[in-house]
Amino acid sequence: MLAVHGDHVKELPPNAQQLGSSKRTDNEIWHINERVLCIQSHPEFNVHYIKELIVNKMYDTGKLDDVQKNECLEKIRNVTLSLSRNTMNKFLYQFLHI
């Protein structure tokens, strides 16, 4: 899954159960009482959105240097690092139909 973390949930709320973590945050995916599903990453973001509206904008405003920009672009091109939209849809469908 593509992720852009400016901030993240460090401590889960009461009754929350962690479902997944990442290098950037311990609480990447979690739920509360099988009714609330929380995903820190952005399943709604596609590669084009990340590239054009985040990476390039951060580069243009000086928040990323050339090396950082190239590292980001390489990561979003590497499909082995992200869940497919189909996999995410199956995951959400299963959660909603518990």
Characteristics of this structure?
3-stranded antiparallel sheet, 3 strands, single chain, 2 domains, 98 residues
Concise summary:
By secondary structure, the protein is of the alpha+beta class. It has helices at 47-60, 66-77, 85-96; strands at residues 16-20, 29-32, 36-39.
Which residues sit in consecutive blocks of at least 5 with pLDDT less than 50? none
**Physical arrangement of strands within the biggest beta sheet:** 1-2-3
- In terms of structural class, how would the helical and strand content be classed? alpha+beta
Query: How many angstroms separate the termini?
Result: 23 Å
The average pLDDT is: 77
- State the share of residues found in helices, binned by percent: 25-40%
Strand element count: 3
The radius of gyration over CA amounts to: 15 Å
Order of helices and strands: EEEHHH
Give the overall shape: globular
| Tally of alpha and pi helices | 3
The domain tally reads 2
Strand portion, in percent?
Answer: 5-15%
Largest sheet: 3 strands, antiparallel
Description:
The chain is α+β, with helices and mostly antiparallel strands and 98 residues long. It has helices at residues 47-60, 66-77, 85-96; strands at residues 16-20, 29-32, 36-39. Strands 1-2-3 form a 3-stranded antiparallel beta sheet, with no helix packed on it. Helix 1 packs antiparallel against helix 2 (66-77). The protein is globular, with a radius of gyration of 15 Å. The mean pLDDT is 77.
